[in-house]
Amino acid sequence: HPCGLSTAPAHPAALSPAGVGLIHGRHLFLLDWTSGKELMRKELKYGSSVTLALCGKLAYISDFRGRLDAYGVGTSVKPWSSQIVGRTVGQPVSLADQSYCAMASTDGFVYTFKGGERPGVWTRYEAPAAISGCLAAGNNAFYAGSGDGVLAKIQVDNRLGGLNWSFPTGEILTAPPLVVSNRVFVATESGRLHAIDDSNGLSLWASENIRAVQPLAVVGGNLFCTNLLGEILAISAEQGRVIGATQAFKISAAVINQDSDRLYVADQHGRLQ
């Protein structure tokens, strides 16, 4: 579905049960899941808006300066604005039930927001160093990795927030972790892959010299991830042993899938597998 002028800047979409949301130019669009029909179009207060998080019936939008505004999705809400420290980095994430969403900032903060019809900041977690897009959601919590190599599990059970556990990798973390069942998989900037027990934050195994970039999915007991050579590796999720690899090819998009045992990859020619 065409959304606004093709010359206007477009930004990654966000998902909610209400539909598919995206920022294009100075407008917030909501599209129907099945038909792509435009369900809503709202003009934004600021043309510099770049980041969108959908959380139930609320859309949280931030701009280049860290200004944060909330808009209703399928409903109307009173005007609400706030300011984050720094500016947003990476992609916002939401829990599967859309009860909470989170954004990370360049200054090392993770902000969580509660869904519903009353917008507001729920908790704020300060990481020990800057965050560069290592943010994920799962198991009723959020996971953030920082520039000093620490992966933290952040609780949202109460307004005080809380750190469930932190895992030091010793290397910079920039890629989102993969949360599947009771395991968390995260790759460091040097390509080392870690498997962490989500119940206590302890290491299960670590694979070296595989140049891992991004964990994607667990299928049939095997973890699949991309590497620096452009290959997709199959790794035993139990032992961390490399089982096989595809031929190197240029991946234009890969879906981080923690909800089912499927691996989705698109190549540079637009073919989706």
Secondary structure elements and pairings:
Blueprint: E1 14-16, E2 19-24, E3 27-31, E4 38-43, E5 49-55, E6 58-63, E7 67-72, E8 80-83, E9 88-94, E10 100-105, E11 109-114, E12 121-126, E13 131-138, E14 141-146, E15 150-155, E16 163-168, E17 178-180, E18 183-187, E19 193-197, E20 203-207, E21 212-219, E22 222-227, E23 232-236, E24 242-245, E25 251-254, E26 265-267
Antiparallel strand pairs: 1-2, 2-3, 3-4, 5-6, 6-7, 7-8, 9-10, 10-11, 11-12, 13-14, 14-15, 15-16, 17-18, 18-19, 19-20, 21-22, 22-23, 23-24, 25-26
How is this structure best described in words?
The protein is mainly beta and 273 residues long. 0% of the residues lie in helices and 52% in strands. It has strands spanning 14-16, 19-24, 27-31, 38-43, 49-55, 58-63, 67-72, 80-83, 88-94, 100-105, 109-114, 121-126, 131-138, 141-146, 150-155, 163-168, 178-180, 183-187, 193-197, 203-207, 212-219, 222-227, 232-236, 242-245, 251-254, 265-267. The strands form seven sheets. Strands 1-2-3-4 form a four-stranded antiparallel sheet, with no helix packed on it. Strands 5-6-7-8 form a four-stranded antiparallel sheet, with no helix packed on it. A four-stranded antiparallel sheet has the order 9-10-11-12, with no helix packed on it. The model has no long low-confidence stretch (mean pLDDT 90).
